[in-house]
Design goal:
Blueprint: H1 17-29, E1 42-46, E2 49-52, E3 57-60, H2 63-66, H3 75-87, H4 99-111, E4 119-124, H5 127-142, E5 146-150, H6 159-164, E6 181-184, H7 198-215, E7 222-227, E8 230-231, E9 237-238, H8 241-254, E10 257-262, H9 276-281, E11 288-291, E12 302-307, H10 308-311, H11 327-342, H12 345-366, E13 370-376, E14 379-384, H13 395-407, E15 410-411, E16 413-415, E17 421-424, H14 432-450
Parallel strand pairs: 3-15, 5-6, 5-7, 7-10, 10-11
Antiparallel strand pairs: 1-2, 2-3, 4-12, 8-9, 11-12, 13-14, 14-17, 16-17
Length: about 450
């Protein structure tokens, strides 16, 4: 079975001839702006493994950018979706109530670590929609117009979430953007001011939020602060515990809601069902969680969850949508969550993360180009630099390493504000042998490209 295979390249180069044919058809039929860095044409996927049109087999460390925590083609989810399809594909939640929507909302209300004992959840189609609707809910509750986001943030590609996203290559030429989005500095401790001790840096980054009040949006005009517990596109940077405590206090002192963007961090990826559970353990739970990606094993679905008083403040007609909470997606999500809990995938994420970190730490000692390693659970970033002293980003090496990995059967992807990091988002069902094979390929690529 493919899910038990190891990476194997059978063509002289990747892509092979059959994959090239499909990629050439893509060039003619699909806007180039959608673009693909990776010349892979998938034939099938199982577990953490992908087979392309030419029979090459890859171990996937991207997983649909965090969508496939339970892997490709999970047989139980496939069967569940087939059974639901026999009944009905869709019933718009604004018109007809279907049980899957309600069961899933009830389940997430129990799981999500938001402040408050009574919670409510509703469904959208994607992470960007979840983030945008979380902001709408915060504005409805607080009656305030502004939000604060952070450097390095990625929240989506709708007009509002493009404004919220830090890297403007995702929004080039798309303005004017909605008003009321202000930005503070995220605690990127590896690149804190030179010579500043880490404990001093935490307070320095907290002070930057107060600066945003002074020079951007007064605190009493801010509805919400939106933050990723661990930045994805920004470079896989976890929010430090002490900084989260400071942020939660700022929000509480000023009547501001704290929104956790758990689109990429949710669903066992960081060693908890939600990364916000780490916050909850510090008595710093968010007020609203927006999530998506691995919620339904690859079927489009997103969710927003908050406590009763916040959700019930929203006027009729403000939230909802045609496809949100689609019956097939809800069925897939319920089975996905059942598998995550039954198979202890949050625990597995920590085991995987420990193995990856151990190898990465060895590389950090061996190779001058490895500048920093960071993350939570099985969401780990490795940052490449020209040298450890200057910390000058080395995005060219990252681009070449990714392509070299591909030629040997490993799918990896870059991230970071300088595009000089490689992310680890392998499905949590990856086997130990597949993980080790990927690590071996990665190290060989580092040696070849950086020496």
């Amino acid at each position: 079975m493919l899910r038990n295979e190891l990476p194997k390249i059978v063509t002289e180069f990747v892509p092979g001839p059959l994959s090239n044919m499909l990629l050439n058809r893509r060039k003619e039929a699909v806007p180039s702006a959608v673009g693909t860095v990776y010349p892979i044409a998938i034939k099938r996927g199982e577990g953490a493994m992908v087979e392309d049109m030419d029979g090459n087999i890859f171990v996937d460390w991207v997983g649909g950018v965090g969508v496939l925590n339970i892997g490709y083609s999970q047989p139980e989810v496939v069967e569940t979706v087939k059974k639901q399809a026999d009944k009905y594909f869709h019933a718009m939640a604004n018109i007809i109530t279907h049980e899957g929507y309600i069961r899933l909302a009830e389940k997430i209300n129990l799981l999500a670590p938001v402040k408050g004992t009574k919670r409510r959840t509703y469904f959208v189609n994607s992470g960007a929609e979840a983030d945008e609707n979380a902001v709408k809910i915060a504005k409805a509750y607080t009656k305030r117009p502004n939000i604060i986001v952070f450097t390095g943030a990625f929240h989506g590609r709708t007009l509002l979430t493009m404004a919220m996203t830090a890297k403007k290559s995702y929004a080039k030429g798309m303005g004017p953007f909605p008003d009321g989005v202000y930005r503070a500095e995220f605690p990127y401790l590896y690149r804190r001011p030179e010579g500043m001790p880490e404990d001093k840096a935490i307070q320095w980054y907290i002070d930057k939020i107060y600066d945003t009040f002074d020079f951007g949006a007064p605190a009493d005009s801010v509805a919400a602060v939106v933050v990723e517990p661990l930045q994805g596109e920004g470079g896989f940077i976890p929010a430090p515990r002490e900084w989260v405590q400071g942020l939660r206090k700022i929000c509480d002192d000023n009547g501001i809601l704290l929104i956790a963007d758990e689109v990429q961090t949710g669903w066992c990826r960081t060693g908890k069902m939600f990364a916000s559970q780490y916050w909850e353990e510090m008595n710093c739970a968010p007020d609203i969680i927006a999530t998506a990606k691995s919620i339904a094993a690859g079927i489009p679905l997103g969710a927003v969850v908050s406590r009763d008083e916040i959700m019930q403040s929203v006027p009729n007609g403000i939230i909802g949508g045609t496809f949100g909470g689609n019956a097939l997606a809800c069925a897939a999500s319920l089975k996905t969550i059942e598998i995550m809990e039954r198979d202890h995938l949050a625990t597995r994420a920590n085991v995987i993360g420990s193995k990856v970190r151990m190898r990465y730490e060895q590389w950090k000692q061996k190779y001058a180009c490895v500048g920093d390693i960071r993350g939570l659970g099985a969401m780990i970033g490795i940052e490449f630099v020209y040298d450890k002293q200057s910390k000058k980003p080395w995005p060219e090496a990252v681009a070449d390493i990714i392509q070299e990995n591909l030629q040997h059967g490993l799918i990896t992807e870059s991230c970071g504000i300088y595009n000089n990091c490689i992310r680890f988002l392998a499905p949590l069902v990856i086997t130990d042998d597949q993980l080790e094979a990927g690590l071996d390929i990665f190290e060989q690529s580092i040696k070849k490209i950086t020496f």
